[in-house]
Every structure is written in structure tokens, then in C-alpha cells.
Amino acid sequence: MKLSRFGRYLLGTYLAFACWIDTGHADQCSHKPVGILNVSKGSIADFCVDQKGNIRIVVPNPRDDSESELRIYSVHGLPYLPRDIEVVPTAIANDPKGSGAFYGGKGRILKSSTTGCHVADSPTMPLRKEITSIAASDEEVFVCCPDGDQGYAIWRMDHKLQAPKKIIAKLKASDGQLNIATHENNLWIARTDEHKVECYDREGKKLKEISDCGRPNCICFAGSFLLTTESGSPVVVKKWSLDGEFLGVACTTTFGSTGFRIPIHAHANGEIIHVMDVNGHKIHSFFDRRFEPTHVQVGTIRPADFGSSKNTNVEGLLASFCIDQKDRIITLCGGIQEIMVDHERGGYKTKLVRHPPEIRVLNMDGKLVDTWPLSVSPRSVGIGPGNRVYVGTKTGLIVYDSEGEVLATYRSPSDESRLPTRKMAEAIAKRVKAEAAIALKHTKRNKKGKKNPPLPPTEEEIERTRVTKDEIDEQFMILTAAASKDTEITGVAVTEKDIFIAHRKNYSFDIVRLTHDLKNPKTIATRLRGCCGQMDIQPDGQGGIYVAENSRFNVVHLDRDGNELARWGYKDRHSVLGFGSCCNPMTVRVDTDGNVYTAESNLGRVKKYSPQGEFLGHIGSAVIQGGCKHVAIDFSRDGSRLYVLDITNAEIAVLKAKD
To answer: Residue 50 phi/psi, 5° resolution?
Structure first.
């Protein structure tokens, strides 16, 4: 049912009142209170929030014998040294390009740097009245001030505070206030008495308006949402789409504010909203509930006895896992895995760790239920129709039924000329041993005072070097591991109609589609970018797949022919909304409702998104060893437990939903 404009207004008013009376802590609001910043020695004229979440406030004449001050507080409320400013301030706005701020008072606008130092002024600006509001876009600054008997006017100027131009005039407002904000280089104005918010372009041409939205006192933007404040008891902050759809109440608070403006600002992603109490000289902060984890870690599972969890040699011996349709954990254990270890002469070196390969089937508490045979090193796993298990290996794909019987195999295409031989392994083993022997002699000579650098071994010295079978086997396994990088299957996704596999191709990744009888391979996507040999794919429930293209910090949605349906995600080391660390997300999962879950290496963080990429919540963060590595995730069927792979320690972290 579509509500009328007046109906939306009544609904917003009702929800605001319901949130306020609901046990005193507003459980129905999208944001919850998290703290109050008390400003001592002076009242707050206005405030803003910069790109890093720091709060900048302007305080007019905090003491009778002092200048006005610009104060900066960290995102945690810690104060920096205040800066004296040359004007009695009435308004301030964040500089979206330089992390500084624009502030002004009577007939004057100034610009400060990131640290609060004065960097620009507009002494020639033709304003003589008190400035009520400032807003800045990427290129321009907009200023609102009284315009004689004509009401209020909006002026536009560049970031150097030059070339002022009046773009809007004859705006009416009560209580001496008119608040403005910018979004995507357009100007938005809160028309309190007319119960609406208007949008204008940079030349002052009206583009649209949001009508019947209460009495919007002050406005700001949090991502793609418009936030409005309404005075009264309680003070109400409402969320609106840019098309005027009422999205609910963000937060409420009960400080007395009737007849006063209520400045509001938010972090760029909407994670935290700040609302100013003018009379109380305080700033109230509210935290978005979506960013609060819904699950907490309660333990770990070790599928096999690989050794101590502190022993780096277990890394990779639990390659991956998934949960089947019977709520069993299918774990890929053992094999030959290539890892990096400390070199005795400094730096790192490649080392192979070995353990008999096998598939271990566990219940949801981590108890062993069954063991399935496996002859090659496993790499990835997926579940298909009929609860079949599809295991990607270093050389191809193996299909099991739900009881562990092998139904079919598929061998990845490979370049036969690149396959290693025992003769190649013996030659490399001899060279390595000869070089080590010469290096040892050189070290002994240096102890006697000789500083001549060692010469490389000659072909004759290499040929005379004797090597053991174990040394040849070691080099052969290293060569085999290197050759298998183009054949190993890093991701498996199975739909009702197709099987999709991801594998490395030179320095990128391809996705190949197969029929259920493992025939008719067709490459549907190429040149996908994945870091450290990682590329995960999952079925979308509609016949297509999602791809975790970690090097681009993207989740990519493809149909069965490889056509891109959607792409979203970005790099952000500070906010939960983006993907952090060096390259993420590493893996994806999809639930029965089509929602997408992502996992991030190094952070152990799992988040939930809509199929269109809208952030829906922070599920939880597992304690895992750092590094750019595979981080498989999966849920129990009832969603109460989340399982996260810690590949370095060969363990699975278990997270449970909070009560």
C-alpha cells in the first residue's frame, strides 16, 4: 500500500513517539545512543564531522578575555589543542577535499587546515549579516545568511573563498534559522515552516523537493540517506531516501530544544550520527545497529591432529570446508601444501608440508563422523543437488555422493610441456646442494679474514654432487606444486543445471562452466584478479554465481554465461562498510533468501549484503591468524552458528548468535 504524503508524515510522527516511549532506550530506532560529548568552558555555536570522524566545533568567546576557538575532538572524544579564530563564529562545515573546515560569523568566511590552522579568508565578501549555515561540495562553498527585508539568500563561492555569487534569494524562515547541506554537488535546504526539504543545482535552479516531512530543523547526509532533525520532546532524527521515501526513525533523544536549531552531522557511511544540544553544550552520538556484530566467537574446532596450533607447519593442512544439507561439516585435510617459513639467513623461503590427504566429516560440534578417501591434495569444496560433494583439487575435480563414494572425476586442462620430471628434480637438487656447500666454505674463509665473495658452482661441480632420493623427492614436489598452480581449482559452485570452477590462468583467473556429467567445458569469464592464489565462487540460487574478486575489493554477480549482473564493494581500512586489509573479500556465501555474506582475510570479519550490494549488517569477527589467505565460511542450517576457517592454525572458529 502506498501512503499519501500526509500519511507518511503521520506514520513518521507515530514511529518517533513509539520509539521514544519504548522502555526508554529506543529499540525500534536504527541507531542506538553510545555517548555524549560535553563541551566545557563555552557554548557550542556549531559543529561538523570530517572524513576521519573527528568532530570540529566552534566556540564563541569561551572566556571574556579570549578569542573564539576552533576545537577538534577525535572519533573517541579525545580533545586536540584548540585554535584561536578571528571571527565570532556562527556556522562551520567540513571541507570534503582537504579534511579542513570552513567557518564563519558576521559577514566573513574563513578556511582552516586539517590541524585547524588558518589558510584562507574572504574579507571582500559582500555579506554584512550573521551567517546561519555553511555547506561545502567538492568544488564549491555555499553560505546562507539574511538578505535584508527579502528573507534569506544563498551565496556560492569557490574553495579559495573567492568569486561570491548570490544564487537563491527571498527564502523565508522562522526563528532566524535556515539550514543547508550538500550531496553530490547539489544544494539541499531545510524549509522548516513549509514542512519540506528542497534540492537545487549549483546555479540555484530547483530540482525537486521532499514534502510533508514534518518540520525539518537541520539536515545532513549519511551515504545515500537524508537525515532530518525535528525539535520537541523528544528530538527526532528521521531517515529519508533521496526520492522522498520515509525510511524510519534513526534516533531520538530528550534534551529540551523547542525553538532552537538542532544541528546534525554523520560519518560518511552513516555509522555514527551526532546531534547537538545547543542549550546543554553537548553533542549526543548514536551508533548504527547494523555495524554491531550479531555473532560472537565461542570456540574452535580442529578436524585432525596435525600437531600444535602454534606450529606453522600445519598451515594449509586444513585447506577448506563447507556444511552440507545434513548439517555436517565437510573438511578437506592433508595433502602437500606450499607455505612460507623463516629463512635461516633472513627473509622467507618456500617449504612443503605433508599429511595424508583425506576428507573428514564432522558434526556441528566438531566430532568426527566419517572419513572419506582422497588421493590428491584438496583445494576447494562445494555442495550440489542431492547433497553431492564437489572437491576441487590441485589437478581437477572429484564428485562424491553424500556417503563418500566417488561418482566422477574431472582433470583440469594443463600444458604438458610444463609438467616436471624426476630428471629435472635431480638437476635442481644437485644445484641447490652444490650452492649450499660453496656457501659453507665461503663462510669458513671469511672467519679467517678472507672477504672474497663466493663463486657460483661450475657445471662439473654440480654434476659431481651426490643427492639422496629424499632430496630429489623434495624438489620434485616443489616443481609439482608450482606446475599445479594453473590446474588447481580454487573455487567450486554447483547449480541445478551447471558446475562452475575457478582456476588460475597465468597471473589471473578464469571461470569454466561444465555440465553435471563433467563435460562440455566452456570458459565464461577471464582475467579476474585474485591475490595470493585466491578466487572463490558461490551459486546465487538463480543459476548464476557470485565471485569474490579480492584484488579489486569487489563482489561480482555473473549469470551462467558470464554476463555481469552487478558489481559492488570498495577498499576501506577504517569502516566496516568497505573491505579492509590488502585484498578482500576472500570468500562469499549466499543464503536461501539471496543475501550475500563476505569474509575478509587478516580481519576474520563476516558481513551481510543484499543481492544489490546494500550493507545489511556485521555478522561477527573470528580470531584468526593474519595474512592474505583463504577464509572459508559457512552457517548451520538454522543460522545460529557461523564457522570461519583459520587456515594458518588448521582450525575452524565457531561463532554463535547472541541471545
So the answer is: -90, -175
